[in-house]
């Protein structure tokens, strides 16, 4: 891919980073977008309350009323704005009429949903007419309650890195066991599974959350009002990745240092979310900022940035 930039942006720093031979796309097994329901007002619930371990009370935008639905048929959805660097919290749940095994999603039969999830089935039946009429009645058959597209349905319940589509700062969250889902692209983003022989998931997460790769993305991405940028696949797959030679002791040291720092960041963000006093939150914020600076410093070393180039990344020097 060729990039066309103004003289000011096409700096020596950009040239150095673009010449890094390995890109995020090269070390990714899969880079997949969110699932598509084709009936979000029926399947997605932005307002919900945990009633018990077995049931969640949800507000249906389509029906303009509340329903109780079994927890085991609902999935946690992360929207683009729910992901920050090293942290994420779902703000939506989705009725997901599929069974996921490995990376394969199989649609439940009508009888299975009716017997295992009777409240969910009652809810779906109340919207049968709408679901059958989707896309000029393309869903007017025995599988009328299925999602609009089958791509990527089984990809989300595995360890992955999540990158939101719309952002002001490049952000990555390593979803190791949360099994969070994205829905659509523009309101969600991409899930990424890695070939970790080049560097572990946490190592790559540290690179992605650094000021260096944030700066690079903003040189190639589309920008929008309000300081937002689009993390399209065509852009994020070009992010330069400093790979690790695991036979090189210095590389291993830097890799392990990054992993330890990212683990610390994940722990600090979790503690901050659970903090109950202003003093706790302030103290944790300071620790997060200090750890973030250590990660950025390590990335500068990994990519061999000069003091002048570091100043450009930090916005301290003109490009």
Compute the number of structural domains.
1
Following the backbone from N to C, one meets helices and strands in this order, namely HEHEEEEEEEEEEHHHHEEEEHHEEHHHH
Poorly predicted regions: 1-10
Q: From the helix content, strand content and strand pairing, which structural class follows?
A: alpha+beta
What share of the residues does DSSP label as strand, in percent? 15-25%
- Average predicted local confidence, pLDDT: 94
* Name of the CATH first level: Alpha Beta
* Strand order in the largest sheet: 1-15-12-14
Shape: elongated
Looking at the structure, the CATH topology is Adenine-n6-DNA-methyltransferase TaqI, Chain A, domain 2
The CATH homologous superfamily is called Adenine-n6-DNA-methyltransferase Taqi, Chain A, domain 2
Helical content, roughly?
Answer: 25-40%
Number of helical segments with 4 or more residues: 12
Number of strands: 17
Describe the model.
The protein is α+β, with helices and mostly antiparallel strands. It has one domain: Adenine-n6-DNA-methyltransferase TaqI, Chain A, domain 2 (Alpha-Beta Complex), CATH 3.90.220.10. Helix content is 37%, strand content 20%. The protein has a 4-stranded antiparallel sheet, with helices on one face. A 3-stranded antiparallel sheet has the order 2-9-6. Strand 16 and strand 17 (228-230) form a beta hairpin. The radius of gyration is 22 Å and the shape is elongated.
């Amino acid at each position: 891919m060729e990039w066309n930039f103004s003289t000011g942006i096409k700096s020596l720093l950009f040239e150095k980073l673009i010449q890094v031979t390995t890109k995020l796309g090269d070390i990714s097994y899969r880079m997949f977008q969110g699932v598509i329901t084709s009936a979000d007002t029926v399947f997605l619930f932005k307002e919900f309350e945990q009633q018990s371990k077995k049931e969640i009370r949800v507000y249906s935008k389509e029906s303009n009323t509340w329903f109780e639905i079994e927890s085991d048929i609902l999935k946690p959805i992360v929207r683009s704005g729910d992901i920050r660097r090293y942290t994420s919290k779902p703000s939506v749940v989705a009725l997901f009429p599929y069974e996921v095994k490995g990376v394969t999603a199989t649609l439940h039969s009508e009888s299975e949903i009716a017997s295992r999830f009777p409240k969910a089935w009652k809810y779906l039946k109340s919207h049968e007419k709408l679901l059958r009429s989707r896309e000029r009645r393309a869903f007017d058959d025995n599988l009328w309650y299925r999602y609009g597209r089958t791509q990527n349905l089984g990809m989300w319940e595995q360890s992955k890195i999540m990158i939101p589509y719309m952002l002001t700062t490049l952000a990555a969250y390593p979803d190791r066991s949360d099994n969070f889902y994205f829905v659509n692209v523009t309101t969600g983003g991409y899930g990424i599974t890695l070939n970790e022989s080049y560097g572990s998931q946490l190592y790559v997460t540290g690179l992605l959350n650094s000021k260096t790769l944030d700066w690079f993305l903003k040189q190639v991405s589309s920008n929008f009002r309000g300081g937002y940028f689009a993390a399209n696949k065509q852009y994020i797959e070009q992010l330069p990745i400093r790979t690790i030679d695991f036979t090189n002791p210095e590389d291993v040291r830097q890799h392990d240092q990054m992993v330890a720092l990212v683990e610390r960041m994940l722990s600090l963000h979790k503690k901050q979310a659970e903090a109950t006093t202003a003093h706790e939150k302030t103290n944790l914020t300071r620790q997060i900022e200090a750890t973030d600076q250590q990660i950025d410093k390590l990335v500068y070393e990994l990519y061999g940035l000069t003091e002048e180039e570091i100043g450009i990344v930090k916005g301290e020097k003109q490009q």
